[in-house]
């Protein structure tokens, strides 16, 4: 059975849209986009389109590749201080002459729509309320939408990135799953992935997960978005694996739309948080 | 073979002592101890004794069980502002009328000797420099002292606490181990623990880990400190498991002394960090 991220995101977005309509003002996101990376532009535009459709306000602040760090600092600071701004998103990657860690840290973590700020990552670590990174959050929303049980399941994650693998592992543990994190240094990977009730591929290698790595009846989540011969391909060999999985996400229209939806949900949550504080 | 935490801590402490001697002033730790919990008093005293032996300065600020939150806030604030204070430790648990989260957060994370501050937990999550919680840090120091390889090993951790299980899992992943986190909701626990090259018991149940749960030749780390019939007992049934393990920590004199040593190492690191900043 296909876990349809496109359809699920549409349903959840529709619900979100209704909630947004009832707010006193539109939640507002400021995106800072530096340079001319085509992938970043595409991604930023999809965020803009999505949020606009949901009745949210999004501004793209496009800065030149050669921008001075001080200018970025000033912009972020002004957004931090502006209580009409609910979310700030610094689109990565940024040019190398800029200090990414320092700029990310400068964003008020109460406006950190990406959930990448050290404070938000610490809050996740402590199982406290905070903004969760969009991709792991979107995956949980998708599983919940299909009522897939998580408690007591053995989740095996391939990949240990800060934006997917690691936060996702913590979110699964907090939902009472048993979690194994694997990566490029893992020995006997297949032995581990074959034990997974829920298998998550988030390593960025096209069609890496093959049929022999998957237990019959497993739930398979494919986070990969790889461009091969101008076509989007996941980290899972879908044609091979789909017949033996109980549920599987396609690429595209799987995790991708859920990530964008989770981001919009984060902005909504930031709006509510800010409103409570004023 | 026994992983002798007492002996290892003595060796590492001796090295630390020599480094401390060369500093311009003694690293200074302020411990805040509220109320009369006997276990807390014992623990604080062992920290005091250890640090004094290493040439560090430790003050215990004992406050009454009924202390007002404002008084604790004032004390923490004064230590935050005092650049002669390198580390601040709020001994847990604290009375229920005090807001633990807020007080822990109030401690300057650059003086957070316990590594419990949200910022330090976030820094660990991001694999960045920061203060690591003492027990996981002590475990890594012990394994390293015995030159036990970590990369590519399958580590299975029983327990998902914020101060041991979770930070330890991240520290092992950062050292390129494959990590499985198990807990009270894990099904077929034995099947998982039997796969461990390194098995860590940190759940707080006396003699929980029995021989049938351990692979022959595994490294077994026992974090448990349970008092049974007025005797300290670990989470591992030592007599049963020791004969099949390649390495095993005893209780007492295993992880315990390493935790205290790691705390002193943290204070030393905080001193250096502070000095760099002035």
Characterization of the model:
2 copies of one chain form a homodimer. By secondary structure, chain A is of the alpha/beta class. Chain A has 2 domains: 97 residues, Rossmann fold (3-Layer(aba) Sandwich), CATH 3.40.50.10860; 122 residues, NAD(P)-binding Rossmann-like Domain (Rossmann fold), CATH 3.40.50.720. Helices cover 41% and strands 16% of the residues of chain A. The first copy, chain A, is built from 10 helices and 10 strands. In chain A, the strands form 3 sheets. In chain A, strands 5-4-6-7-10 form a 5-stranded parallel sheet. In chain A, helix 1 runs parallel beside helix 10, helix 2 crosses helix 10 and helix 6 packs across helix 7. The longest helix of chain A has 23 residues. Chain A is globular. The model of chain A has no long low-confidence stretch (mean pLDDT 96). Strand 5 of chain A pairs antiparallel with strand 5 of chain B, so a sheet runs across the interface.
